[in-house]
């Protein structure tokens, strides 16, 4: 149980330093991830017009949506290792500019083959951004803060759908302007911010506390000493089961593999719902604008609750149950979707499922970074995210195949029930046996 006067026990230099770090780097990273996710899933809204225009079946759309994760997975670990070599500022900027240009190219696909090709290129372009940022945050924040910080950063995902859904639906209404279809304008207009932010990243993202001119020498020294002490405690064996391993050893480490499977349930459902949910809601006979407004509701709820859940995890210094409970809720809510064919119950079920997929993220990534030493973090985080995102490919593709075969969206969600349920059981089983990082969790 955390002490009630924990805020009073925080030294002034810690409070001032971390407040400055939060306001200097977190808003920019959140905005960048907001744009990244908009560009990743806006095909879900474009599909309301695009699929008919270029002749995509549900299975073909699902395959193209899922192919993003194939190249994303293949390029994830090399991209994260490259960030360590070239520095966060250069590499994150490179990723953003590249994915913006490729996302704009989606406006010019003309059939299934070009759709598949550009989705593969988009996955390769964006690979490394998310795990790179998770790694980057470990350069700035002690472990005791990471649950809430990751949750705040990742709230950009549901916010991207909460705000992006009505925006994307509105852009579809530009249909015919300058001879372009609404879905083409959607890809072009929503890609431009990524390129602009990529250029700005060169100026606003220091590679680490030692290069942050906006920190005083005392603040920089305190933060570097604090993080160095935590890394030393890991080397001494106080925390992480995955210590100094080669890349191949990291990829085969049981904690990395287990964390990957655990994440696959939440990530698979998150990616699948973000891409398919507009079509699920539109299937009830709604207009594009009505679809956009209703699609935003689950993500608005998730945006608030994921921050509260991340704060709860940090306050209690508890990760395992804060990871397992949302995964269990996710499995139950997706399973319940087969029991209704009405709009209102479907929206309520989607609210539960979407909230579960996002509340799990902060505690899960805090838990995963506690399992990994500094030496294993770059490859380990990338590998967890890469393998976990295979769930995105599986869920997205199978939903399209099952929809074509049965005409049912809820039946297409059942594979994700199995994946998220398995993740829930695995985190509970592995969490009971792992060594506790007692010293690492203290302020």
TrEMBL record:
Domain named Major facilitator superfamily (MFS) profile: residues: 25-435
Chief location: membrane
Transmembrane segments: 21-38, 58-79, 91-110, 116-137, 149-171, 183-205, 255-277, 289-308, 320-337, 343-360, 372-399, 411-430
Membrane-topology descriptor: Multi-pass membrane protein
Annotated localization: Membrane
PROSITE patterns: MFS
Keyword Ribonucleoprotein annotated: no
Gene3D superfamilies: MFS general substrate transporter like domains
Name of the protein this chain belongs to: Sugar phosphate permease
Protein's organism: Methylobacterium pseudosasicola
Lineage, uppermost ranks: Bacteria, Pseudomonadati, Pseudomonadota, Alphaproteobacteria, Hyphomicrobiales
